[in-house]
Structures are given as structure tokens and as C-alpha cells.
Write a structure and sequence with these properties.
Elements: H1 2-20, E1 23-44, E2 56-77, E3 81-83, E4 89-91, E5 101-105, E6 108-111, E7 115-119, E8 126-130, E9 140-144, E10 147-150, E11 154-156, E12 168-170, H2 175-178, E13 181-185, E14 188-191, E15 195-198, E16 203-206, H3 209-217, E17 243-246, E18 249-252, E19 254-256, H4 261-265, E20 271-273, E21 279-281, E22 285-287, H5 290-294, E23 299-301, H6 303-308, H7 324-374
Antiparallel strand pairs: 1-2, 3-4, 5-6, 6-19, 7-8, 9-10, 11-12, 13-14, 15-16, 17-18, 20-21, 22-23
Length: 377
């Protein structure tokens, strides 16, 4: 019982240290306003009517406020980690991990127990391959940890003795199931002694005197090369610390989060996929700030693009641009004000022209009157 409790304490301390590694600490400055009591010296000059001018000094106590800075240590998740409901900081893999893998560090995946990393030869991406401690028999493949399943063209044999499962036997449907022969591979028969394979009938037929002579005339020399194994000693490669040896190969323990993710699955709205497999915001869009906290990469329009991009009233998702109606309303109101100002200005201009014309006519009339008076004797 003591051993179990000791083991629990050790595992708990290890888990606590691992969790603390995901936290970062920083100093935060908090500025508050606090009431304070101050005093000041007031100098009062004597009256100018006094002969002996002596200044008076007295101390005044008054209430005031001051800004006070305090510092505290803030503990939060490090960059690349997200705090979950349990209060722990878990790493973020922005492009996800393949099946049977978990996110163990920011944008780093690792296969779970019973699986080992493997690389896809077509696109170079990683996937997790199951591990079977005992090699699977011929015709079977490892589909899960320590689980072998017969492949296509093979059937499962009943277990022998205390075995859990039997081997895999090839299936032959030709020649009535290899009648008078044995199925040695998928759809391949080996005829028994006294029989030969008839290509026309696709079955094992009994040898006759006539068929023996035909066989002797058309016999071809079939030889099978025996595979010889080298007696040289096999030296296992030495793998670095970040790799594990599997089937004579050094496999990566951790790998990047879905290296070519967007090349296969694509990107989100208003995003383009780069050749490196990373999604990037399209022109006129910037990353959402909330995406850094949630781990979901999304893009939004820039402010100037929203204001100036009035030629696109809707975006790619047929959503109305939130700036379209306000800008159109402001523009319409501005044009209406210009129209009213123009009408009022034109009316005033016409009135001023009319008043100026009337004044010129009065001046001309009075001038003529003076000229007539000058000629009167």
C-alpha cells in the first residue's frame, strides 16, 4: 500500500512539473488613485497701508489624491498554449494532428502509445502506424496495436492450441477451388502428383499418355531462385534522442502539426494556401485577434478595406458589408446638404444681382437730374 501511495506522489509531482512548464509569469503594473492628506505653507502679505510691513505665514492642511503604482505577479499560459475549463494550459496545434496522435507542444504532434510515426511517400506528411510486437503472419497486416487482420484474398484460419487467432490462408476460386491441387497463393494453384494445370479449362486435369507427350514437347525450364540471407552481422542504426528505432529505421517521436494540412484540406474563408501548407489571409484581410486565444485561424477585412471597398457591397459569403449602409447614408446626406446649400446660394446670388441692378438704375437717374439742373438759368 505504501508503494502505491509513493508511486501516486511521484506521478503527481511529475505531472505538476509538466503542467507548470506550460505557464509563464509576468509583472503587471496596477495604477490606483488613493486619498492623501497634504500640507502647504501660505504666505500672506501685509496691507499696503501699514507702516511696518510684515508677512504672515501659516500652514494649511488639505485633502488630495495621488496615483499609486503597485506590481503583482500574473501567472498565465505561455504563447502557444490555451487555458481549458479545468484551468490547465494545453498546447495548440493550429492545423490539427493525424489520427492516433495528440498535440504535445505548440504545433507539435506525437503518436499515442501503441503507434509510431511514419511518413507518406506521396505528399511527405506524417501519420501514425500501429505497432505489432509479434510480426503478422503472411497475408496479414497490422491494423491496430498487436492486432493483425488478414488482407484481401486471404481468409482467417481457426486458432491452433491455445492461440487466440490462426494464420491467414490464401483463397483460390479458380479450378473449383484448386480441386486436385493446393492453393499456394491468391488465385494460384499447385496441382497434385498425376495432374497438370490446363490453361484452357483453368483447372487441374489428370495426366494421360497423350497429355504426357504434349507436356514433354512443350516443357519449359522453370527454376526458382532461392533467397539467401547474408551471414554478415546486422548493426542497428543509432538514433538521436528525438527519434525511436522501429524496423531498422529511425522514426521521429514528434513532428510538425499536419505539415501539408491546407494542401489537402484547404483553408477557411478569405484565406490562401501557401506552398508550405500554411494558410495566409487574402489581400485586404488581416488575422482575427481572437484566433490567437482560441487557436482557430480566421481573417477579417481591414478597416480601410471596409470603408473604401464600397464597390463590394457583399463579401464572398454574400454577407452585407457592415459599412455599406452607413457610408451610403452619409454620402446621400452630404449630397442633399450640398443641393440645399447650392439652391440657397443661387437664390441669394440672384437677389444680390437684382439689388445691385436696382441701385445702378437709381444712380443713373439722379445723375441725369443733376445735369438738367445745371443748364437751368
Amino acid at each position: 500500500m505504501k508503494f502505491i501511495w509513493a508511486l501516486i506522489l511521484v506521478l503527481g509531482s511529475v505531472a505538476a512539473n509538466a503542467q507548470r512548464d506550460n505557464y509563464c509569469e509576468r509583472n503587471e503594473t496596477i495604477r490606483t488613485t488613493v486619498p492623501v492628506t497634504k500640507q502647504r505653507v501660505i504666505v500672506k502679505q501685509s496691507s499696503k497701508w501699514k507702516i511696518w510691513k510684515k508677512t504672515e505665514k501659516f500652514i494649511e492642511i488639505y485633502d488630495s489624491e495621488e496615483d499609486q503604482d503597485t506590481h503583482r505577479l500574473v501567472r498565465e499560459c505561455c504563447p502557444g498554449y490555451l487555458e481549458v475549463k479545468s484551468g490547465l494550459c494545453e498546447p495548440i496545434c493550429t492545423r490539427g494532428c493525424p489520427a492516433h496522435a495528440s498535440c504535445v507542444a505548440p504545433d507539435r504532434c506525437e503518436c499515442i502509445s501503441g503507434y509510431v510515426s511514419a511518413r507518406n511517400h506521396q505528399d511527405g506528411s506524417h501519420y501514425c502506424e500501429p505497432i505489432c510486437q509479434t510480426p503478422c503472419p503472411a497475408g496479414a497486416q497490422c491494423v491496430a496495436p498487436n492486432t493483425c487482420v488478414c488482407g484481401d484474398g486471404y481468409t482467417q484460419l481457426p486458432p491452433i492450441g491455445d492461440g487466440v487467432s490462426g494464420g491467414c490462408a490464401p483463397v483460390c476460386r479458380v479450378g473449383d477451388g484448386c480441386a486436385n491441387g493446393q492453393c499456394i497463393d491468391v488465385e494460384r494453384c499447385s496441382c497434385n502428383s498425376g495432374y497438370r494445370w490446363d490453361k484452357a479449362e483453368e483447372r487441374c486435369t489428370e495426366l494421360t499418355a497423350e497429355s504426357i507427350s504434349e507436356t514433354l514437347d512443350t516443357t519449359e525450364d522453370h527454376t526458382e531462385s532461392l533467397t539467401t540471407s547474408s551471414t554478415a552481422a546486422f548493426t542497428a542504426p543509432h538514433c538521436p534522442d528525438d527519434f525511436v528505432l522501429f524496423r531498422g529505421e529511425c522514426r521521429e517521436k514528434q513532428f510538425k502539426s499536419n505539415e501539408v494540412g491546407c494542401l489537402k484540406s484547404g483553408c477557411g474563408p478569405h484565406q490562401v494556401c501557401l506552398d508550405s501548407g500554411v494558410c495566409q489571409c487574402s489581400d485586404g484581410y488581416v488575422p482575427e485577434e481572437s484566433g490567437q486565444a482560441t487557436g482557430v485561424f480566421s481573417c477579417r477585412r481591414t478597416f480601410f478595406d471596409q470603408v473604401l471597398g464600397l464597390n463590394e457591397a457583399t463579401d464572398d459569403e454574400d454577407k452585407l458589408n457592415p459599412w455599406t449602409i452607413p457610408i451610403i447614408g452619409m454620402a446621400s446626406g452630404f449630397l442633399f446638404v450640398l443641393l440645399i446649400v447650392g439652391l440657397l446660394g443661387g437664390r441669394r446670388y440672384r437677389q444680390e444681382r437684382a439689388a445691385l441692378a436696382n441701385k445702378e438704375m437709381e444712380c443713373q437717374y439722379s445723375q441725369k437730374t443733376v445735369d438738367v439742373d445745371e443748364w437751368v438759368p
